[in-house]
Design goal:
The complex is a heterodimer of chains A (about 60) and B (about 475). The longest helix of chain A has 24 residues, at about 35-55. Chain A has about 60 residues and is mainly α. Chain A has a domain at about 30-60. Chain A is about 70% helix and about 0% strand. Chain B has one domain (about 5-380): Sodium/glucose cotransporter, CATH 1.20.1730. In chain B, α7 crosses α8 (about 160-175). The mean pLDDT of chain B is about 90. Helix content of chain B is about 80%, strand content about 0%. Chain B is globular. With about 475 residues, chain B is mostly helical. Classes of the chains: A mainly alpha (about 60), B mainly alpha (about 475). Chains A and B meet through α1 and α2 of A and α5, α10, α11 and α14 of B.
Amino acid sequence: MIKIDFKVIRKPLIIFIILIILSLTVPYLLPSTFAGSYLFWIILSIVVILYGIKLIGGLK
Amino acid sequence: MTRSSIMLWGIVFWFILGSIISFSAKKRTGPGIAEYFIANRTIGGFVAAMTYSATTYSAFMMVGLVGMTYSFGVSTMGFELSYLMGTILLLVLFAPYFWSISKKYDCITPSELLSKAYHSPVLGGITTIFSLLMLIPYMSVQFTGIGYLLETLTGIPYQLGVFFTLIIILVFTLWAGMRSVAWTDTLQSLIMFISSIALLYYVMNHFFGGFNQFFQVIQNDHSDLLSANKMPYQRFLGLTIPWLFFALTNPQVAQRMFISRDKKSLKVMITGFAIFGLLYTLIVVHLGLAARYIFPDIVNTDMITPLILENIPVILALIVFLGIVAASVSTVNSIILTLSSMCTVDVYGKLFKVEEGKRLLFGKIMVPVIALLAFLFSLGKFGVIVELSVMSSAGLLALAPSYFGIFWKKGDNIASLSSIVIGGLATVVMYFTGYFPLGIWPGVWCLIISTMIFFLVSTIRYSKKA
């Protein structure tokens, strides 16, 4: 069977899961303004994209 | 020239342009199954990013998501951006490994990768049949979407519009397989992107007098749209969680992890898709927010985009209309090609040990067969098609644990098979009975059930082996 060692993805997986949990929870606590959930979701998406680009940039 | 005839000529021009691109792709296409279904892993980064984006984003964005934002405000943006984050996660973590494995073990389809990962040809066959059952209703919704839009904007009768769509899809797919689909998808994604930006620019300036005024109007008069709670939390989770796994569970996008020329192209694909996804989502969401001010009392939110099209200059309406048609066509042709590759490699190729030429011929025959099935399905009752489409998106989640299981030493083939079959069946039963235990949506249940079964069966079998 083809198996890939889980250790290679463990750390980024945990960070990504934390970021996604933030996306699914925090906005529901924020006020109804553009500076609230609207801005939070946009900034979080940019953070995830930048983190993703950093990770794949390090791939050989 | 009337508005509808301009729309019609626009479609004809777009079809001719797409056909020229498709024909050019044919001239570059070599022999063999790998060439036809995954372009022999020679797709460059930009084209890979564009075909990934066009395959992922269907007409749902410009029609469904605009309407959802109109009703539920920024929580819709939260759903769509969470989905984007999930997809980036899966691409960054899985794509480099899946690309390497598919190259090393010569895998053409995601189901072949699963069957080789678990040493089980049956698993590939079951995954193929399961994907066929789940994706045909999803494709039919795209057909019906174009059919209704053509009828509304050009006056072409629904059945005829759907039939034209079938012809367009066959031309873009049959000639040169993946190369043709990827090249035409690049055209489609550019049309989708440019048309949506042009529409947003026009809407902001014409109806609001600029972006600043738009933000002021929404903040002052429609601040309810800026609350995440506008969409009930249970619904938000029910929609979002299943979509987080889309990049793995939907074979048409999973197969795109195999097509890149090299790892550099793969990186460009992921980065390009991430940027496209973020911008396209923001554009569509802002159109939905703007629509709330422009048309304050709409009941049927699916009609918002057609209403916008009726109230903007004809050339802009034509470009946006083409963008919507392009989004549908690019999604459907990718699904058809992927499903036909799965039928060829994981079913026909496993059942009959025939030469490659005959398998390729079978694959080419499967393209119109699957397209025809989706076409016939789209002639059915619209409400039922939509229900089945929603169910199928949820049902595909049963595949997720098997993909994650490749990273787990205990994961095994019987666990994979049982999690797919039981998870999928449980979803179908919940949708048909309308019984959602604890009020949790079937997609979430599907994920919970299939993960538990995969975990339990793998653990038990691993301990027995030990």
